[in-house]
Design goal:
single chain, 96 residues, 4-stranded mixed beta sheet, globular
């Protein structure tokens, strides 16, 4: 599940191969030309497709002149990000 709360996209539940296509589309639809935070604190399950979703959101945000800042990566996602060497691309912030 994903929803927008002010300037934050909140992602809840699992983000896996089973639902990532729909979540990716929903997230892109919620982007605009502002700064948005992507809060991943309530994500309960991830796989490598989660990284693909976040990268696609970044590409879509760039096309819409939107800046994304990621907050509250779950430990399981941080491990995958290190494994796939994308920690320099998907950088968490702590100012939210």
């Amino acid at each position: 599940m994903i929803y927008r709360d002010g300037n934050t996209l909140v992602v809840e539940g699992g983000v896996t191969v089973h639902n990532v296509a729909g979540l990716t589309r929903q997230g892109i639809e919620l982007l605009d030309s502002n700064l948005l935070y992507v809060d991943l604190q309530k994500v309960t399950e991830v796989d490598s497709t989660t990284i693909s979703m976040l990268l696609e959101w970044q590409r879509a945000a760039d096309r819409k002149d939107c800046r994304l800042k990621f907050v509250h990566f779950p430990a399981s996602l941080e491990s995958l990000m290190q494994l796939y060497d994308v920690t320099s691309i998907l950088v968490p912030v702590s100012d939210h």
